[in-house]
Amino acid sequence: MLKPGDWVIIANGQERIIGFIRDFSRLRNEVYIVQVSTYMDKRITPMKPVLEVVESKKIMAVGLTLAKEDWDAMIDLAIMTDDEQWFRQLSKRKPG
Questions:
Q1: In whole angstroms, what is the distance from residue 47 CA to residue 88 CA?
Q2: Where do the domains of the chain lie?
Q3: Which CATH number fits domain 1-62: 2.30.30.30, 1.10.10.10, 1.20.120.140, 2.60.40.10?
């Protein structure tokens, strides 16, 4: 089961968009995703974070395990972008 803060990939034609879940729609089968990069032709291209509403059937969980340094980097990013909700979610889920 996906939850806020989980990293996901969004299928968009040939392109894949990488982002994390911000929240879920309570009325529709939609997910609020903060998009942070695109993936196409084996190349990741960073983008300015954008909040989008996506149908839940278009997203796939990214199966990964993060190192402590990665958690710290994401927490720093949440602070730099003034995203208090994401900061709290990351802080709560950070191992150790």
A1: 23
A2: 1-62, 65-96
A3: 2.30.30.30
